[in-house]
Design a protein that fits this description.
Binding site for substrate: 22-26, 34, 38, 66-68, 70, 72, 189, 195-197
Pfam family, one: Prenyltransf
Low-confidence stretches: none
Oligomer: single chain
EC number: 2.5.1.-
Radius of gyration: 18 Å
Bound molecules: farnesyl diphosphate
CATH architecture: 3-Layer(aba) Sandwich
Number of helices: 6
CATH topology: Undecaprenyl pyrophosphate synthetase
Strand content: 5-15%
Number of strands: 6
Binding site for Mg(2+): 21, 208
Shape: globular
Order of helices and strands: EHHEHEHEHEEH
Family: Belongs to the UPP synthase family.
Largest sheet: 6 strands, parallel
Length: 243
Amino acid sequence: MPKDPHSDLPAGPRHVAIIMDGNGRWAQARGRPRLFGHHAGAKRVREVVEACPDYGVKYLTIFAFSTENWKRTQVEVAGLMSLFRRYISKEARALDEEGVRVRFIGDRVRLDPKLIKLMDNLEELTKTNEKVHLTIALNYGGRDEVARATKRLAQDVADGKLRPEDVDEETLPKYLDTQVLPDPDLVIRTSGEARISNFLLWQSAYSEYEFIDTLWPDFTAEELGRLCQGFGNRDRRFGAVKI
Ligand code: FPP
């Protein structure tokens, strides 16, 4: 991995965001139900989180359930919700011991109170950890996030806490779910689809994208390393011209 000329850190992405796609196809290819693929997908998360420090990745954000995923069959939605509950209960200790700080983004209103409690507890348990910041997007949609943020911003204007003329590009991000996170440097989508599906719309304005054919349950730490390495060789100009 090339070194950042200004520090000892690898010149890779500091914040990687992943659209974990392809669980259903992975299961179907094995003649198994879609939920089998989601369980296999959940198992990949630990290896990927643990590999982050090796590649200088400090922030990892993963798309676990979108605001559109409620349109799936009741069996699949219920299975995914049960998987999230089990995952959080089972992985909490290991994530904490690994020094991972876990946060959740997305709208909690539609989620089961038992799941919300587990999410709150995991955020509380890991709140002083700093090795890796893992953010799990659950009932998350970029448009929904911007709409919710705008509603809160409008309320602050109505309450006289904010003047409309002071609203600029720096204002809205303070109302987004991701307010304390840096923008993603690299967004990866597995399974061969080249679209962003409402993920981190505001935040990924200048992100690099990698669309790879690997189905999420086959994604490995080595593949993350390869993509981070590729990122280090790119020249990001943020709209400016290099002199
Ligand atoms: C997309 O694959 C994947 C999802 C909608 C769910 C993502 C969930 C996981 C990887 C498992 C759990 C994660 C955590 C944090 C416990 P798809 O079903 O759309 O696959 P397909 O495109 O092949 O049908």
